[in-house]
Specification:
Structural class: alpha+beta
Number of helices: 6
Strand content: 25-35%
CATH superfamily of the largest domain: GTP cyclohydrolase I, C-terminal domain/NADPH-dependent 7-cyano-7-deazaguanine reductase, N-terminal domain
CATH topology of the largest domain: GTP Cyclohydrolase I, domain 2
Helix content: 10-25%
Shape: elongated
Order of helices and strands: EHEEEHHEHEEEHHEE
Number of strands: 10
Largest sheet: 8 strands, mixed
């Protein structure tokens, strides 16, 4: 478990606070998990963002009438802190009985509080249900590898030694799987996700990638660190000219978390999947 997470509200009984309380936000430094992967803030081999989507966002108008909307928050992958997810939900719940003059005022408040917790500016966008409904859901890019015939007997820890490639062939491709699962390192509850690998480099053996992803099934770690581990393991194997790994996780408590890591400077898109 991350040492800071022991002091977070995750896995503990919590009082429902329905009026604005920014102190509920609980930042967790990324440095300890980076160190586990042999990284530091100065040596990150990727760029990226964590998209958080909140489907239980509500507040009051000055008249007392409630509003519901969907919140989109983008936290830079190199921010000093992640925000512990239960504390994020408790903070958002504290808006439920709080009046705001208008949507812009609420967005500014969210931006200020979340940026202070993350240690770097956080992007905030409040969207109407109609806007999100009109967007619909999307399919992941590239080939789905889930129908490949593999034998699996290891689920406790990620096994990068399973990964194989053909260094004699250089390819550029996108592949994805919906079979990513890991567990929360604090509560041991399951986290379900879909993962995309896009790269140009030595040809990756798809069956070995699927077996590797399944090996996360009983692994305990936060969403962000799972994606970073996948990115680093593939980077070591493929020595790619470019590499992007991202995961779209199923929501829990009205929040989904979607980490993107890439060698490229990209305009990452935040589109929902059918399970989201």
């Amino acid at each position: 478990m991350h040492p800071a997470a022991e002091h977070s509200p995750l896995g503990k009984s919590s009082e429902y606070v329905s009026t604005y309380t920014p102190s509920l936000l609980f930042p967790i430094p990324r440095a300890a998990k980076w160190a586990e992967l042999g990284l530091s803030a100065e040596t990150l081999p990727y760029k990226g963002v964590d998209f958080w989507n909140c489907f239980e966002l509500s507040w009051l108008l000055p008249s007392g009438k409630p509003v519901v909307a969907i919140g989109e928050f983008s936290i830079a992958a190199d921010s000093p802190n992640i925000i512990e997810s239960k504390s994020f939900k408790l903070y958002l719940n504290s808006l439920n009985q709080t009046p705001f003059a208008d949507r812009e005022t609420l967005e500014a408040t969210l931006r200020k509080d979340l940026s202070a917790a993350a240690g770097k500016p956080v992007g905030v966008r409040i969207r109407s249900l109609a806007d999100v409904e009109a967007e619909g859901v999307v399919a992941l890019p590239g080939r789905c590898i889930d129908e490949l015939d593999i034998s699996v007997d290891s689920y406790e820890h990620p096994r990068p030694e399973l990964l194989r490639c053909d260094a004699s062939r250089v390819v550029e491709e996108s592949v994805h799987s919906h079979l990513l699962k890991s567990n929360c390192p604090v509560t041991s509850q399951p986290d379900w996700g879909s993962v995309v690998v896009e790269y140009r480099g030595a040809a990756l053996d798809h069956a070995s990638l699927l077996a590797y992803l399944v090996s996360f099934r009983q692994h305990s770690d936060f969403h962000e660190q799972c994606v970073e581990r996948i990115f680093l393991d593939l980077q070591r194997l493929l020595k790619p000219e470019k590499l992007t790994v991202f995961a779209r996780y199923v929501r829990r408590g009205g929040l989904d978390i979607n980490p993107y890591r890439s060698t490229e400077t990209a305009d990452f898109s935040n589109h929902r999947l059918v399970r989201q």
